[in-house]
Amino acid sequence: MGAKILQFLSSTGYANLGYKQAIMIIVAGILFYLAIKKEYEPLLLVPMSFGLLMVNLPLGGLMEKGGLLYYLYYGVKLGIYPPLIFMGVGAMTDFGPALANPKTLLLGAAAQFGIFGTLLGAIALGFTLPEAGSIGIIGGADGPTAIFLTSKLAPHLLGPIAIAAYSYMALVPIIQPPIMKALTTEEERKIEMKQLRKVTQTEKIVFPIIVIALVGLFLPSAIPLLGMLMFGNLMKESGVVDRILDTAQNSLTNIVTIFLGLTVGATASADKFLTVDTIQIIVLGLVAFSVGTATGTLFGKLMSKLTNGEVNPLIGSAGVSAVPMAARVVQTVGQEENPKNFLLMHAMGPNVAGVIGSAVAAGVLLSLVG
């Protein structure tokens, strides 16, 4: 009897828990704190943190062949979940602010500089070109894009890259304001922008069709992400497919978010995550995101000067595609300096442009590196 008890005890997770797994359980706890207490991207951080927790409990076998998450992970491995998330984002996004002020699309493009700048930095640190491309895409502050590209170019780095991408998306309200304030003057932050023109429904319907046709012909590798984004938006703006629009906005997106979060979190097992490469990826990811914020803001300053002060440069920081959090941060920082400032809708222009820009950047990297 005593031997059987000892055999049972030796088969428990407690007897097989190593210090690395204990560290990862603490990491999961930190992510739970950010998601639940601070409410930073909880819809994704909660399932991702739970997946991370489960995979680091010894002997669970969730990601081994036959395990629950092993099969759900095929949606990531085959590049299915991220485009479906993009469809949901498109179904919930209004491109009207970008159409009302098309020049703000340039701010979304400028904020993607962090992707390619960090790619060079990653190569200098010894990462391969595919790995560097996957690390650089963190600068777009777009979790689904980072997951999609990494699953194609460097699947072995999916855990740290996904966690870095979503963590920085969640920390937008903390990371961005100091950069925005350091690069702008008080007078610039006080600039009030004119009310946007009314965009016609015809413009909104035609826009997603034209974008996917033009970009898809030029950059076929961008079609999976950009195509689903535009399809979701067309459903929203057409006004004739309410039933499937509701599914795309709610139940389907929620289901895919749960599966995506759990399986991506489960890729961060202790043996794969606790490496020197992971530390470098997290640092490079912060650099990429910070550079993207900075270049967007600096381009906003340039646009402000070229338009004789018609553009508040703060909206340039929303060019990273953390929708709509980055736009809300612009609104908050702007109102701190000028309570009469209402920059949210103006910031949504570069914000949605950033979503398009990150998808295009991923397509470029897939074409050149993949």
TrEMBL record:
Molecular function as annotated in GO: lyase activity
InterPro entries: OadB_MmdB (IPR005661)
GO BP annotations, alphabetical order: sodium ion transport
GO CC, one annotated term: plasma membrane
Keyword Chloroplast (UniProt): no
Annotated membrane topology: Multi-pass membrane protein
Keywords: Cell membrane, Ion transport, Membrane, Sodium, Sodium transport, Translocase, Transmembrane, Transmembrane helix, Transport
Subcellular location(s) of the protein: Cell membrane
Listed transmembrane segments: 17-36, 43-59, 71-93, 105-127, 161-184, 205-231, 251-269, 281-299, 342-369
Protein name: Glutaconyl-CoA decarboxylase beta subunit
Organism: Selenihalanaerobacter shriftii
